[in-house]
Amino acid sequence: MQIASELGKNGYYIQVGEKVPSNFTVLGERSSGTNFLKAQLDTIPDMQFKNWGWKHAFITAWNVSPNLMIFGIVRNWNDWLLSMHKKPWHASKQLHEMAFSDFIRTKWESHPIPRPRQDQNMIIEKLIPGDRNPIDGSQIENVLALRALKLKNLLSLPLRAENVVLMKYEWFNQNPGALSDLLKSKFPSLDCPNFEKIKGTSFASFENYKRFEDFRPEFPKSIPEEDLPFIKTNLDSELETSLGYM
């Protein structure tokens, strides 16, 4: 929990080697701000983006090249859950159609197609391995269990790679320039511009998402009170507390 506690206290956790990595990648669950983060990092001329596979998947690699800087981002469970319900990328057709209370209580099922309803004639049989339990390959109980496992997995990055920056979306969104300052303090020779908020890149557009859907439920603007006990029981409360989210 040391990494989680530092992340919760400071808003970030950083671990770097002696040399400036030439490549970077961005990892994090859906609706956590990965698009926003990548858009900022793309402006660094000294580091090139490296496609490291599906950015939302469980991480399985070890002994990552020191030439790669991995950036990971997390978001508070309240806003994240509402956003996941509104834009459940890759989730099954069944999950797309569910009201919030059912959505959080149903087994998580992901398919290779971002929006399973966009082609009614397509038979979807494959499940995305990156959203299944990385230990035994089993289907994950619900979106809350998915979050708990994904958070633990992301926090294992400092054991897997030499160059890692983990951050809370709230810290980065409030002042993107703080990440610029952090990177330049660790790598004085790095040509890093001052990051600023870029309109429209925090999260994928809902308008772009919903135009592929012929039916979606109503989306609550806040989490229903009656669902809070179930949510808090199924989250990893110790980890969420360390992160400052409980």
From TrEMBL:
This is Sulfotransferase family protein. The lineage of its organism: Bacteria, Pseudomonadati, Pseudomonadota, Alphaproteobacteria, Hyphomicrobiales.
